[in-house]
Amino acid sequence: MILQNDLLRQLRYALKFNNPDVIAVFALMNYPISQDELDHLLKKEDEAGFVPCRDRTLAAFLDGLIIKNRGIQEGREPQLLAAKARLSNNDILRKLRIALELKDTDIIAILALAGFKISKTELSALFRAPDHRNFQVCGDQLLRNFVRGLGKRNRA
Questions:
Q1: CA 20 – CA 62 distance, rounded (Å)
Q2: Contacts of 67 (CB under 8 A, 6+ apart)
Q3: Going by C-beta distance under 8 Å and a sequence separation of 6 or more, which residues neighbour residue 151?
Q4: Residues 61, 53 contacting (CB under 8 angstroms)
């Protein structure tokens, strides 16, 4: 399973965010995080001071990114992920799609930049409800390649 810390670090790079940018995104979800806490989350697993990034923390960042790019939905207060709830790769990809206002063709092109090929049909299966007969689980490799391609697109 892809570590949430790795994903947060890779997204920070891919989106060209510095630490104050990341802290500001968390603040949009009323999820205060200090520079010191962020530094620990951005460390690699084998580094001293590493603190694992929980699903709730990553979800707060992704939801803050949606608010930053698209604004708050009318009549809805930002909701943090429930304490015991899990964030799947499908959820992460869906939140990134919303935050970055990506169409299927955009996602396919971003994945292609990372050398990962996917059809429109395969992609749509990732965004279906889990109980739908054509639902497909988003694997770590696809998510990694998506973030890698995003970095290539944004840093070209």
A1: 16
A2: 28, 29, 78
A3: 10, 13, 14
A4: no
As a whole number of angstroms, the distance between CA 9 and CA 44 comes to 9
Calpha distance 51→146 (Å, rounded): 24
Which letter does DSSP use for residue 139 in this model? P
pLDDT tens digit sequence for 8-41:
999 999 999 999 999 999 999 999 999 999 999 9
C-alpha–C-alpha distance, residues 151 and 147, integer Å: 6
For residue 44, give both structure tokens. Answer: 């690699």
Six-digit token string for 69: 């790019």
pLDDT digits over 99-117, tens only?
999 999 999 999 999 999 9
